[in-house]
Design a protein that fits this description.
seven-stranded mixed beta sheet, metalloprotease, 852 residues, signal, 18% strand, ten-stranded mixed beta sheet, carboxypeptidase, alpha/beta, 34 strands, zinc
């Protein structure tokens, strides 16, 4: 159990005061752990439109670098006239007295005309098609000066030891500071605080502002989630919580923020959220992310948090007068429950790109959800105005910190990259290594054992080659350096073929490479509760073979750096073609063929045969999805009859947003359903299979809807996931099994044993769970497709037994995780979780094809 933190009174430098950079005194108090925002495990069914998924899957990434093709030899300001958006009186911001999305472009046009400090770029588009605005505020720069800034930025990352000695970096490099606003769409006020601050910075003449802008670049993502801002929803148009999407980056809004991190390299950042009263300001409780340089991060993040605390408390709001409690800093004031362990949150992801002070700031007064619907407009606007003030105070204090500590902030960012590039050891936090931060204890010490490198082998199964190419491209998109062997080699006693990929962890962003590729850690014994997911591993869950290398001379391996993975797609020149269904790309290619009316047959091993007459279409799909159409070997099932003909499958889906998105990524024709949709009357004649995991309750159906559903299920098929899918199976009387629910807070990467049948043939031997389920008391005709590995199957994550000793990982060990019968498949794992475990997707795709 974490010991209480001592109270520390912030001492604020009088030098931080000024017309913009106010930092009044403050005090703090111990208080109970904050209320969690909750997980994104919805109780309803996803209803996102298909065009939002298409936008997310096809939206390009905008190059925001100063030397990029999008902005060759341009200085600052970079002004442009933004076309207006149609006025939308239904924008949820209006009720709160805040800026509706359609008013942002005109406002930015005005701000650009105030002087020569404000620039606007379009950093991309949301899943709903709305523009994402990146505003830069800085003193004017010539094209040459901008290129000099880019040269120094690249030197800091790519040659940190040289950057540490470069007098130009010390004298003239501008500190990059990033404000990310409104990533949760119904947490609005950061956007308005940012617009107010930009307006003040655009024309202020005081000495502190002039000094700040001469030595800083300030970047504002004005609204990171315009879809949610307009609709008053936490999620974007695809139903995704964007503050859970980093590392995976399935959504265009997350990819835009990723590109800002790569191209602008912020050293300091805030992510503006709501609502926790009093205002919550990171750093966090344990466990702390083990892959970044936490000593440097804690040093700066805690110091900046004290300044923000002073500024926010100094506004004068009180519980009695305004209903506003004093600021809380979880690291100091809480024991556990608000951790920074997973890399899925914006500030934690930014740390891997060199941010040495990065914060979630939760402003105080709730105006969303039930409050939005029930409170009087006047009260909502009073609260929103206070929230804007609080967000603005946090921003101004951060600018003061960045201005005063510019030299040490950049030195610490350089040190982050130096440690990575040289393979230097991490520095465990302690009172000696992070002076000035009170209460550091052994519960705060998290470091990792970095391997020397990872190898992603060439050759082997086609699944591995296709998955490897996807993984390599994803690493590169995250600015991880990857090389490829130009000849066969041996390393640490193992032989590898020419063409294998090598990820040398002596690189500036080693933490990011390791957090993606490592197995992770079982932290079940470290804390009793986690804020969100606790285990992840692209190496284990994407279907690629990833080998950690602990020793050996990499200098003896002949490699070249790559900018993209080598293409693996091809089409055999003669005869019928065989397409394996081991990756989501292969499922997508199959569904495209079926949509085009190509006659496809499925074999007993789960692969499909495509007629040679469709070779031209196969060639186009091989290019689109980078998949291989091999020459056929066996074209008959083991019984000797022709393979089973397949047809285009239409899926009725009562599922989570991540599952709906994954189904569309695999090109399934999906119609969202729910209890309400079925009760309103639903035509089952145009549907082939039902997939259920959320938002469909058999007992909640009216008599007609229940009868129609039961009739469909006894002539078609069901794929169920989790407790909701298992409950529908039981109500319909399909598979004779008893579902057992594990600890509902449990999640992570688990070892599994696959049966080798058509559903799980060639599937990875690891899966992902969230609120795991397993199946016992299997009746006649029930087949175990996948089981949890015997013993404790958890590899990384957090999975404890319940208070009565049940529901733990040992109870699941050896039990059935995926079961099937003639017309149903049930999953106790999470094979489509948040569009994340790519290697698990084909299990669902094969299940839908099998039972349809």
């Amino acid at each position: 159990m974490r010991l209480p933190r001592p109270v520390l009174i912030a001492t604020v430098l009088t030098a931080a005061t000024g017309s913009l950079l106010l930092a009044p005194p403050s005090a703090t108090a111990d208080r109970e752990p904050p209320v969690r925002e909750g997980t994104d495990q919805p109780t309803g069914a996803a209803e996102a439109p298909a065009n939002a998924a298409r936008n997310a899957l096809t939206s390009p990434v905008t190059d925001l670098s100063d030397s990029g093709l999008a902005a060759p030899r341009r200085g600052y300001p970079r002004e442009q006239v933004l076309s207006p958006d149609p006025e939308n009186p239904a924008d949820k911001s209006i009720k709160l007295g805040l800026t509706p999305y359609h008013a942002i472009a005109p406002k930015l046009n005005v701000l650009q005309r105030l002087g020569d400090r404000v620039s606007v770029e379009v950093a991309g588009r949301s899943a709903g098609g709305h523009r994402l605005y990146l505003v830069t505020v800085t003193a004017p720069e010539s094209a040459r000066e901008s290129l000099d800034q880019e040269r120094m930025r690249e030197l800091i990352e790519n040659a940190p030891q040289a950057a540490a000695k470069d007098p130009a970096v010390k004298a003239s490099y501008k500190t990059p500071v990033f404000f990310d606003n409104n990533i949760h769409g119904n947490e609005w006020e950061g956007t308005d605080a940012a617009l107010q601050l930009i307006e003040r910075l655009a024309s202020a003449k005081d000495a502190q502002t002039t000094d700040l802008l001469a030595h800083s670049r300030l970047y504002f993502n004005v609204t990171a989630n315009p879809d949610g801002r307009i609709a008053g929803t936490r999620a974007n148009a695809n139903g995704f919580d964007l503050n859970r999407d980093f590392i995976t980056a399935s959504q265009p809004e997350a990819r835009a923020i990723r590109q800002i991190a790569i191209d602008k390299q912020p050293a300091v950042m805030l992510d503006l959220h709501g609502y926790v009263n009093g205002t919550l300001i990171e750093p966090t409780t344990p466990p702390h992310g083990e892959n970044y340089e936490y000593d440097l991060f804690l040093k700066n993040t805690y110091a900046n948090a004290l300044g923000m605390e002073a500024a926010v408390n100094g506004l004068g709001h009180t519980p009695a007068k305004d209903g506003v409690e004093p600021v809380q800093i979880p690291f100091r004031d809480q024991r556990e429950g608000w951790d920074d362990w997973p890399p899925i949150f914006t500030p934690q992801y930014q740390a891997f790109h060199g941010a040495v002070a990065a914060h979630t700031v939760e402003i105080p007064l709730a105006v969303n959800n039930s409050e939005y619907d029930t409170l009087p407009v006047a009260e909502l606007r009073r609260r929103s105005a206070i929230n804007v003030d609080v967000a603005g105070a946090a921003m101004r204090a951060t600018l003061a910190y960045a201005r005063i500590h510019r030299a040490s902030i950049i030195a610490d960012q350089i040190e982050v990259f130096r440690r990575g590039a040289t393979g230097a050891a991490q520095v465990p936090v302690s009172a000696e290594t992070v002076p000035g931060v009170p209460g550091i204890g052994p519960e705060d010490v998290y470091t990792t054992d970095f391997p020397r490198a990872y190898v992603i082998p060439a050759g082997g199964a086609q699944r591995s080659a296709t998955a490897a190419a996807r993984l390599v491209d994803h690493l590169l998109a995250n600015d991880v350096r990857v090389t490829r062997a130009t000849r066969d080699f041996r390393l640490a006693g193992r032989s590898y073929a020419k063409g294998s990929y090598v990820v040398d962890l002596h690189q500036p962003k080693r933490g990011l490479a390791n957090v993606m590729l490592a197995d992770g850690r079982d932290i079940s014994d470290k804390v009793s509760v986690m804020y969100d997911i606790s285990g992840w591993s692209l190496g284990r869950l994407w279907g690629a073979t990833v080998v950690p290398v602990r020793s050996g001379e990499l200098s003896a391996v002949a490699t070249r750096r790559v900018e993209a993975a080598a293409r693996v797609g091809y089409v055999a020149p003669l005869g019928d073609l065989r397409l394996r269904l081991d990756t989501p790309q292969e499922i997508a290619a199959l569904n495209s063929l079926l949509e085009q009316g190509v006659s496809v047959r499925r074999l007993a091993d789960g692969s499909v045969v495509v007629p040679g007459s469709a070779r031209a279409r196969a060639a186009a799909l091989a290019r689109t999805y980078d998949v291989a159409f091999d020459a056929t070997g066996q074209t008959r099932t083991t019984e000797g009859s022709p393979g089973t003909p397949l047809h285009r499958v239409r899926v009725a889906a009562a599922v989570t947003p991540g599952e709906l998105f994954a189904l569309r990524e695999m090109n399934f024709d999906v119609v969202p359903v729910s209890t309400a949709v079925l009760n309103a009357g639903f035509d089952w004649s145009a549907v082939d299979v039902l997939f259920v995991s959320s938002g469909l309750d058999h007992a909640g159906l009216n008599e007609g809807a229940r009868a129609a559903l039961d009739a469909f299920l006894h002539t078609h098929g069901l794929v169920g996931r989790g407790a909701v899918g298992a409950a529908l199976n039981s109500a319909a009387g399909l598979l004779a099994v008893r579902p057992v629910e594990g600890n509902g807070d449990a999640n992570g990467v688990v070892r599994v044993v696959n049966s080798g049948g058509p559903l799980t043939a060639n599937a990875p031997d690891h899966g992902f769970v969230y609120a795991p389920v397993w199946f016992t008391d299997l009746g006649p005709g029930v087949r175990v497709e996948q089981a949890y590995a015997p013993g404790d199957p958890l590899v990384s994550g957090h999975w404890r037994p319940l208070a009565d000793g049940t529901g733990g990982p040992e109870a699941a060990g050896g039990q059935a995780a995926v079961v099937s019968g003639p017309h149903a498949v049930l999953f106790g794992t999470e094979p489509l979780f948040r569009d994340h475990p790519k290697g698990e997707f084909p299990q669902v795709g094969r299940a839908l094809l099998t039972v349809s």
